[in-house]
């Protein structure tokens, strides 16, 4: 079965995207990356010296033959900062790809949807392939797409919370309404089933970092995530059974209310 | 990593157990069994002619080189019926293994815990390896073990409901309190994430049937379940990150209340 | 609107039942009882000297003009103990009412359903009005009723946990299947909405103790519970709106899956 | 106990706000309003002829001695429309109060947070008391307050869905971070317990319409809502017990994850 993720014309066999922060050490990060099967790795331009490719540098530990590097604008608090950071990333890495973050609150790291729309518009016009990480909001999603986003990345829960998907209703509606670009769930994943659930909802992919990097055994958790993304995607494509209160109940409970679809 | 399931001294590499009912046809069943990786397959003694091994019979479609056949006493409504059915299964199949069902309600197929304890006691004394499917209840669980159960099989939700785990609290407590025999979650699974969640809770395995047999694409759902059981087990062993309201929140939300642990 | 609770022919205007344990002091208990509007108060025969009616005794602080005293067999671990304790209560209090507890596990205080059925049978034959507190199980519920229970009291969650209703599926099925005796949810309530939810599910009443007694302000929490029981009952009788994913969605989401009905 | 809601210097004894749409008839609406105890009633300026006070008009059925009329800008799809509609309402009703709606999607009626911020800024400068209904988003909440909102009204779920609170995490964070203006939960309530839960989370009030207007018995559901708001508020003030897995569990489960706090 060929079932690839395509973003901006590029094909990925894996629907998992992974990060580089918070690992106990770079060897562990590399092992986790391998175990994850991810073909996209995101790097915070403001935290990593992208130009440093020397032995022992973070960049040295990334397997760029297998993985697309996706620079991100973490720690940018305005559209302007994010735009500048994206341009810098393109210059150093010679890539149009950017995971766009405009943070609106220091404590929770919630995104600033307005700032994201503004920055997406500017960057898309400059030829960037923009993947904005945003607060789950249908109206903002449409504006991000109008502004040129190549995919949209709603949060499941606050960054680094590990809470898993909080708002099934909004994500279901996003999936129902948005079909022109991929939806990648980003932020808030805590464990493997969170990933499976996102995929069972019909999401196109998942980006995660803390859940793997701060697990007790990051490479093993990365392998769990690899299986989870397959499990969830296959279950989605396989067409699940209807829910019933019990097997002989007269009517199926098709709807999912405030819970997983 | 060696991480096998051991029940009554027998080792299984897969923690998934699978059924034989409700498939559209036997070819599809066989394909699903293969895709699942399951090494245990359960068969309803009262519904299947176990003696019939002719071409085209259900038994003919089971890959018994790879899978242990686990006869079950579905459709038995008293301990006596279940005991008789277990003996019949042993006679025909020459196996001491029995998945014990004593059904207490025709509509919901809820188990009769009292009948199960009684039948387990009799059968265990006769040398059966008894795996009772029971209503999630700590006090009943201890009595089943005292009566000689080789593993216990609490339900996640009513048979055939597809609702996934309903009572996280009871299952968490079962896991905390019961460590001398394996706990296999049985009944109520609807999709892959249900399996992953059960495994993340530290359960030893999952038995399912309807979720695969009545999916739109049973072999694909079976493959999803294979990945899900790996995902959940690995995530459990990998040690998940703590939950927080947001990344910089002062205290982790370690407990999981009325929800997944 | 007349909407009373009737158990064994006795009519109660309030559907709330309340306990006597864990209060900081007896004055606070009395104030909470008054604020709750409860007409049934339960007392642990093994913990309270029922014969002591002197000033300052617990019994002295109960408003028995307004409230029916419902002795309970807390801390009884066998049917025999519970039967003996019920008889003792009847002797001292001259009441046939008994809230029957047979505890099956010291740590979790989970009930022993088998012991309860046995004790219910004996006590009902002796003319007791038996209200057994049991583990939510349809098959056991039917046996309790066959044994002569005047009402059944499934737990919402472990005693003293404050978790609220854990298994909506089992309680929904109990409500659908059991219509010949009242169902009183007992144990596990943590706050007012837990009570409202139980009533919205069509339960006939709620018994609680810890949630009020160990709140920071017990009389205020008792008043909250009084309102909650009214709110939930009225909402049940008023017939709630159907759920929809959004207002103009084509099909209502009538079923409630793994969640509140 | 004095525990009033104060918005823009005006004191309300009831924390419930109610609507006027979707009732079967105006008599039923009036009866429901009375039963609710609400002191704020919202009216859609674009749907109701506010100038018509003749016998039999909607305005004639509002008890304006007891209730503050809160005009709303429902069915406005741009900031400009909403601003114009607010000015019109002020002219006719001679009130500075406005429940601000800028709808961003016709199907789901999700709010347009950007449009709301813009309209709030303009209207607040003109002396309006602006209560914006918005998509639950901390960054937008802060901007609404900076723009001059007198209270903020995050949605619980899509308007008319009846799903109850979907995102406990975002609402908990809003409550933790926003203390300078009241938070009124608006939209998505389906039944009484939804209201109790919102109040238990520390919200300052709840606005609802469909849940009462389309219940089978609107006045009875309105009475349920009145009790629910009291129940939830009192429970919040009373300080609930900690959650534990079971009563003797060593550590309380204080955090509530992806669920009610």
UniProtKB/TrEMBL annotation, chains A, B, C, D:
Q: What is its EC number?
A: 2.8.1.10
Q: Name one GO molecular function term.
A: thiazole synthase activity
Q: In which pathway does this enzyme or protein participate?
A: Cofactor biosynthesis; thiamine diphosphate biosynthesis
Top-rank taxon of the source lineage equals: Bacteria
- Quote the Pfam families the UniProt record gives: ThiG
In terms of one coarse class, where is the protein primarily found?
cytoplasm
According to its UniProt record, where is this protein located?
Answer: Cytoplasm
Any one biological process term the GO annotation gives: thiamine diphosphate biosynthetic process
Q: Which UniProt keywords apply?
A: Cytoplasm, Schiff base, Thiamine biosynthesis, Transferase
In which residues is 1-deoxy-D-xylulose 5-phosphate bound? 160, 187-188, 209-210
Which GO cellular component does the record give, naming just one?
Answer: cytoplasm
The record's Gene3D superfamilies line, in alphabetical order, gives: Aldolase class I (3.20.20.70)
Q: Where is the active site?
A: 99
Please name the top-level EC class of this enzyme.
transferase
Membrane-crossing residue ranges in chain numbering: none
Q: Which reaction does it catalyse?
A: [ThiS sulfur-carrier protein]-C-terminal-Gly-aminoethanethioate + 2-iminoacetate + 1-deoxy-D-xylulose 5-phosphate = [ThiS sulfur-carrier protein]-C-terminal Gly-Gly + 2-[(2R,5Z)-2-carboxy-4-methylthiazol-5(2H)-ylidene]ethyl phosphate + 2 H2O + H(+)
Per UniProt, residues of the Thiazole synthase ThiG domain are 7-252
Family, according to the entry, reads as follows:
Belongs to the ThiG family.
Q: Which PANTHER family match?
A: THIAZOLE SYNTHASE
The entry describes its oligomerization and partners as: Homotetramer. Forms heterodimers with either ThiH or ThiS.
What does this protein do, in the record's words?
Catalyzes the rearrangement of 1-deoxy-D-xylulose 5-phosphate (DXP) to produce the thiazole phosphate moiety of thiamine. Sulfur is provided by the thiocarboxylate moiety of the carrier protein ThiS. In vitro, sulfur can be provided by H(2)S.
Q: Specify the protein name.
A: Thiazole synthase
Q: What is the lineage of its organism?
A: Bacteria, Pseudomonadati, Acidobacteriota, Terriglobia, Terriglobales
């Amino acid at each position: 079965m060929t079932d690839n993720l395509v973003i901006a014309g590029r094909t990925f066999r894996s629907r998992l995207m992974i990060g580089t922060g918070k690992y106990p050490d770079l060897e562990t990060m590399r092992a986790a990356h391998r175990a994850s099967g991810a073909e996209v790795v995101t790097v915070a331009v403001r935290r990593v010296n992208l130009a440093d490719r020397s032995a022992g540098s973070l960049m040295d530990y990334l397997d760029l033959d297998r993985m697309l590097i996706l620079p991100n604008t973490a720690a940018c608090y305005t559209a302007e900062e994010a735009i500048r950071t994206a341009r810098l990333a393109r210059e150093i890495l010679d890539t149009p790809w950017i995971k766009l973050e405009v943070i609106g609150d220091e404590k929770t790291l919630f995104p600033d949807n307005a700032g994201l729309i503004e920055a997406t518009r500017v960057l898309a016009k400059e030829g960037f392939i923009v993947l904005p990480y945003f607060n789950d909001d249908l109206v903002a999603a449409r504006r991000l797409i109008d502004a040129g986003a190549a995919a949209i990345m709603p949060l499941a829960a606050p960054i680094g919370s590990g809470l898993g998907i909080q708002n099934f209703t909004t994500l279901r509606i996003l999936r129902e309404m948005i079909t022109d670009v991929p939806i990648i769930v980003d932020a808030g994943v805590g464990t493997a089933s969170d990933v499976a659930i996102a995929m069972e909802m019909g999401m196109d992919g998942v980006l995660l970092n803390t859940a793997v990097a701060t697990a007790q055994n990051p490479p093993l958790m990365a392998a769990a995530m690899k299986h989870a993304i397959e499990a969830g995607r296959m279950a989605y494509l396989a067409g699940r059974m209807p829910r019933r209160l019990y097997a002989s109940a007269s009517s199926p409970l098709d709807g999912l209310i405030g819970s997983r679809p």
